[in-house]
Write a structure and sequence with these properties.
It is built from 22 helices and 22 strands. It is of the alpha+beta class. The chain folds into 4 domains: 234 residues, Heat Shock Protein 90; 136 residues, Ribosomal Protein S5, domain 2; 94 residues, Rossmann fold (3-Layer(aba) Sandwich); 121 residues, Heat shock protein 90, C-terminal domain (Four Helix Bundle (Hemerythrin (Met), subunit A), Up-down Bundle), CATH 1.20.120.790. The protein is elongated and about 115 Å long. It binds adenosine-5'-diphosphate (ADP) and magnesium ion.
Length: 635
């Protein structure tokens, strides 16, 4: 049986399990916010028109002649139906099965996980996760979708119908031109929606900005019936009010916020925004928002859909890397160009010098906006940094032109306040540098605790030198790209190339010259551990701990090696250097051991604890335990 034969027969199918779960939830928990169904269905209709406009750039025959894009919303008090129609791209039989029978998006699991029980918030989530179509079942107990895909013949029109309980049926539909009708057979308790005034109110509330005209039949007062009756004349009910096209001075903060929440499906107000009309070589309007909270997709580096590109108020596409770099993927907003061609495709965007100029200018605008939060509002900046700091850090390695600007926005934990809050900027660090200090010191570790308790910090404490404590996954990578800030080098204190003895602050550190006997002992330790370390030497950085491990300037740090290994890579392994505190009891004790076997156990234990104290893990923990027990039990 070929496809078109099959096409003619009505066929019953089951919803995917997740869809059933979603439908159930939708019907039971979102009932108090039922009017969102109209927003979702109109938004789909508008998307369908945008899609067809886009595809017809390559294949103009797809469009029917002499017809502008249009969405109509009709209701019928006798049948108790509301019908939302569009002349957009339509759906084929396969499209319908894929789009209205399954949830393809990977975010669905997150969706369920994130339901808060708060119906209002949950309702917003529905839009955010793009499961909007099913909201039809909040108000309807039977939904029919009649659709004809642009480019297909009339006999390919399909009809999908379902009561939302578990199955849907597909059969042949009747529609002469491309587009889709969604017919909702309302539940009895939603009959109040069969009212022209009510529907207009909902449309204005949620869909005013939709750029495609939304039409309803005009209504007039009938003396005879004593009520509003429909005429046969259509009128446009939305203003296609593209907020960004209005002058700033005429827009209230509330309007900016409402627009953001509607367009980007966020239930929080934005943190801040910037709205500018740019004139000159390229004319365009930008409206960028910084959200208050990271959305779930933001951690996905490939998700760069925050920016919507318009050309003269006509929606062209959701933004991609051509409009903003990935490290700004948390930004939401609009770019509306006055001079791009409506025919732009992704490929053209890629090559366009104008787009590149728009992108560069947009990045500057956004970085300035972030900087102004950091200068003017500590609380907001804290929110910003907590939500998006880790993403912004990617910019240090990705956007060399703006590196200095981004570096100014970075915030770290530090030994200055000793708290896990990241609130110390590099400039602040520099302003507190000790007399004679020329370097910005930092340590990277797997966690804040492991950083702040690292033995490497001991001498810095004694010298009262501030050290930045870095424990985000991205930090090590970021700092491999940030060598300097305002002329000061950034140096890891776990590496071996600095000298703080000249810094005059804090207590002096005596660079004790080890005695001949101590030298001998150290040599012996080095010989014993020669398989595991590059070198053993006397440390000038330890105060309380007996030993620590360091790496040479150009070697990978142990922290980075651990990260690379955890991500399945095989980094070149370089042996660390063991530094010992020759004044420590441990070293005095080991010097008195004359049994070779015992000496070996002690030397290995010294190295093991140095690795553990710097947050590392041991290759052979059970030998460590055995050694430790032997020593404790004096065996
Ligand atoms: P989203 O709009 O976020 O993709 P929806 O649940 O609202 O999620 O819609 C699912 C899919 O169904 C859409 O992506 C689209 O492919 C298809 N669809 C829904 N309504 C229409 C329509 N009116 N015309 C064409 N396709 C539609
Ligand atoms: Mg949708």
């Amino acid at each position: 049986m070929n496809k078109s034969d099959k096409f003619l027969e009505p066929e019953k199918m089951n919803f995917q399990a997740e869809v059933k779960q979603l439908l159930n939830l939708m019907i039971h928990s979102l009932y108090s916010n039922k009017e969102i169904f109209l927003r979702e269905l109109v938004s789909n209709a508008s998307d369908a028109c945008d899609k067809l406009r886009f595809e017809s750039l390559d294949v103009p025959e797809l469009l029917s002649k002499d017809e502008d894009f249009k969405i109509t919303v009709l209701y019928d008090k006798v049948d108790h139906t509301i019908t939302i129609s569009d002349n957009g791209i339509g759906m084929s039989r396969d499209d319908v099965i894929d789009n209205l029978g399954t949830i393809a998006k990977s975010g669905t699991k997150d969706f369920f996980k994130n339901l808060s029980g708060d119906k209002k918030k949950d309702a917003q989530l529905i839009g955010q996760f793009g499961v909007g179509f099913y909201s039809a079942f909040i108000v309807a107990d039977l939904v029919k979708v009649i659709s004809l895909k642009a480019g297909l013949k009339e006999d390919h029109a399909i009809c999908w119908e379902s009561d939302g309980l578990g199955e849907f049926t597909i059969s042949r539909g009747s529609r002469k031109t491309h587009g889709t009708d969604i017919i909702l057979y309302l539940k009895e308790d939603s009959y109040e929606l069969l009212n022209g005034w009510k529907l207009r109110e909902i449309l204005r509330k949620y869909s005013d900005h939709v750029s495609i005209p939304i039409c309803m039949y005009k209504e007039e007062w009938s003396e005879e019936k004593k009520e509003q009756v429909k005429t046969t004349e259509l009128e446009v009910v939305n203003q296609s009010n593209a907020l960004w096209t209005r002058p700033k001075s005429e827009i209230t903060d509330e309007q900016y916020k409402d627009f953001y929440k509607l367009l980007f499906h966020d239930f929080n107000d934005p943190l801040t925004w910037t709205h500018n009309k740019i004139e000159g070589r390229n004319e365009y309007t930008q409206l960028f928002y910084i959200p208050k909270q990271a959305s779930f997709e933001m951690w996905d580096r490939d998700n760069t859909h925050g920016i919507k590109l318009y050309v003269r108020r006509i929606f062209i596409m959701d933004g991609s890397e051509q409009l903003l770099p990935r490290y700004l993927r948390f930004v939401r907003g609009i770019i509306d160009s006055s001079d791009l061609d409506l025919n732009v495709s992704r490929e053209i965007l890629q090559e366009s010098r104008d787009i590149r100029a728009i992108k560069d200018a947009s990045v500057k605008k956004i970085l300035n906006l972030i900087e102004s939060i950091s200068n003017n509002n500590n609380e907001d900046y804290k929110t910003f940094w907590t939500e998006f700091g880790e993403i912004l850090k990617e910019g240090i390695g990705e956007d060399f032109n703006n590196q200095e600007k981004i570096a100014r926005l970075l915030r770290f934990s530090s030994t200055h306040n000793g708290s896990a809050n990241q609130d110390v900027s590099l400039s602040e660090y520099i302003s507190r540098m000790a007399e004679g200090q020329e370097i910005i010191y930092y340590i990277t570790a797997d966690s804040f605790n492991s950083a702040i308790n690292s033995p490497h910090l001991e001498v810095f404490r004694k010298k009262k030198i501030e050290v930045l404590l870095l424990s985000d996954r991205i930090d090590e990578w970021m700092l491999s790209h940030l060598k300097e800030f305002e002329g000061k080098r950034l140096v890891s204190i776990a590496k071996d190339d600095f000298d703080i003895s000249k810094i005059s602050e804090g207590e002096d550190i005596k660079n004790l010259e080890p005695s001949e006997f101590q030298k001998e002992v150290i040599k012996n330790i080095e010989k014993t551990l020669s398989d595991r370390v590059k070198e053993v030497r006397v440390s000038s950085r330890l105060v309380d701990s007996p030993a620590c491990v360091v790496v040479e300037k150009n070697d990978l740090s142990p922290h980075l090696i651990r990260m690379l290994k955890a991500s399945g890579q095989n980094p070149p392994s370089s042996k660390p250097i063991l530094e010992v505190n020759s004044e420590h009891e441990f070293l005095k004790k080991i010097a008195t051991i004359d049994s070779d076997k015992k000496f070996e156990e002690w030397a290995n234990l010294l190295l093991d604890q140095a690795i553990l104290a710097s947050g590392g893990s041991l290759n052979d923990p059970s030998s460590f335990v055995k050694r430790l027990n032997n020593i404790i039990l004096d065996k």
